[in-house]
Amino acid sequence: MQITKVSPGEYKRQLPMVPHVFNSVEFSELNRDKATALHYLIFSDTKVRFGIILGEKADGLHSPFSAPFGGFSTLRQQRLTYMDEAVDLLKTYAGRRTVHITLPPLVYGSSQLSKWVNVLQRHGTMQCCDLNYHFELSMFPQYANIIERNARNKLHQAMQEELTLIPDCDIERAYGVIKANRDEHGYPLRMSPQAVKDTAGILKADFFTMTHDGCDIAAAQVFHVAEGMAQVIYWGDLKQYSKLRTMNRLAHDIFAHYHNRGLKILDIGPSTENGTPNHGLCEFKESIGCSVSPKFQFTL
Predict the structure, then answer these.
(1) CA 255 to CA 225: how far, in whole Å?
(2) Can you give the C-alpha Rg of the chain in angstroms?
(3) What secondary structure letter does DSSP report for 237?
């Protein structure tokens, strides 16, 4: 097998399908200013085996360089022997530079990703294991029975309120509510309004607001990231309305929305930072019926 650095166009030609949008040429090119250089690498012998897009930064080569996760792309399931060889080639290519790889959560393909965990921990060092939550949308018809009692009571309260979910709303409208939520809690909002618009121009994105008495009190931003899977990028409500159990209702209505559209998984995102859990966030996501899968980060 050999490793070849190619142009973005050639990379896309040789790997027309990628496992998720964060490994796409379009997403990488949109965010190329987040790295000093991009490396589009193809691993091949008699056929293309793997590809990886790395962003070069001061501390090494990163996949992803501006996304929740990255990793290798492949057109089909691959044997461990090929995977071992690809990682050896990548380490040789990197030279003295450290390679940072964050894999998708195992829910994105447990068989192949489990093999990558084995390969990368043998060739490198596991830096952390984050906990990533998702909702299996096939479970929605039994939603009232699978959520915790406390969450069921809060959802019942929310159902008594005049709360309305508005899908397909303006980006600015949803972003304004999300920004207000982040400001109230002192959390950073990493994407600017323009970055959100630019990203929505290259992938399928949905924006929701929830209203009460004509006021926008909660919102969500969701990206379609893989076949049958969407990911909540941001969601939140305004503090003064939390007594209405807005987040319990928002989660329920968004789960219903994507279940009715035939998706399989709604990725809610991690509730850990560098492996350290936010216990309150973990407990909330578990209470509303989410399952958890690990998301591993490695260095080579």
Answers:
(1) 16
(2) 20
(3) E
Segment 132-150 shows an average pLDDT of 97
DSSP string across 130-177: EEEEEEEGGGGGGHHHHS-HHHHHHHHHHHTS-EEEE-S--HHHHHHH
CB 265 within 8 A of CB 107: yes
Name all contacts of 111-120 with Cβ < 8 Å and 24+ positions apart.
111/77, 112/74, 112/77, 112/78, 113/71, 115/78, 115/80, 115/83, 116/71, 116/72, 116/83, 117/296, 118/80, 119/80, 119/83, 119/84, 119/87, 120/87, 120/296, 120/298, 120/300
CB 22 within 8 A of CB 70: yes
Whole-angstrom Cα distance, residue 112 to residue 80? 9
- Identity of residue 71: G
**For 242-300, what is each residue's pLDDT tens digit?**
999 999 999 999 999 999 999 999 999 999 999 999 999 999 999 999 999 999 999 99
Residue with tokens 């915790």: 148
Q: How many Å apart are CA 256 and CA 252, to the nearest integer?
A: 6
Asked whether the bond before 270 is cis by omega within 30 degrees of 0, the reply is no
Distance of CA 140 to CAs 29, 145, 229, 253, 264, Å?
37, 10, 15, 10, 10
- Rounded to 10 degrees, the C-alpha dihedral 26/31/37/43 comes to -40
